[in-house]
Each structure stands twice: as structure tokens, then as C-alpha cells.
Amino acid sequence: MAVARQTQIIGASPHSWEDAVRNALERANKTLRNITGIEVLKENAAVEDGRVAEYRATLLVTFLLEGT
Known about the structure:
By secondary structure, this protein is α+β, with helices and mostly antiparallel strands. Helix content is 22%, strand content 56%.
């Protein structure tokens, strides 16, 4: 029987929300094993001088726990 866990992370990019999602997933892959899916919960941006300075994406990452 498989057991999964979810964790919420935030990725950022100066270019786009798609890059922010990609950056978050790439970083999650460095420390989490058995990632089976992601859900984009929210997209927002930091604004400086009336322009988007940083795109941010909040993700819910699902991964399988390893058994003993």
C-alpha cells in the first residue's frame, strides 16, 4: 500500500510564472524522492516601479513515502 505526502513550496523567476513553476519543481527534485504530481495553487508577482520584478508560483507537491 502506497502512502503519499504533500508539501507546499514557492518558486520564483524574473521571466515568467512557467519558469517559476519549473524552478520550484527542479529544486524540489533535489531533496524529495518519488514526486508524483504538482498542483499550482497560486500565481502572484512582486512589483517594483510599476513593473513585474519577480513572478512567483505556489505549488503543492505530492510524493510517495518510502516503505521500510
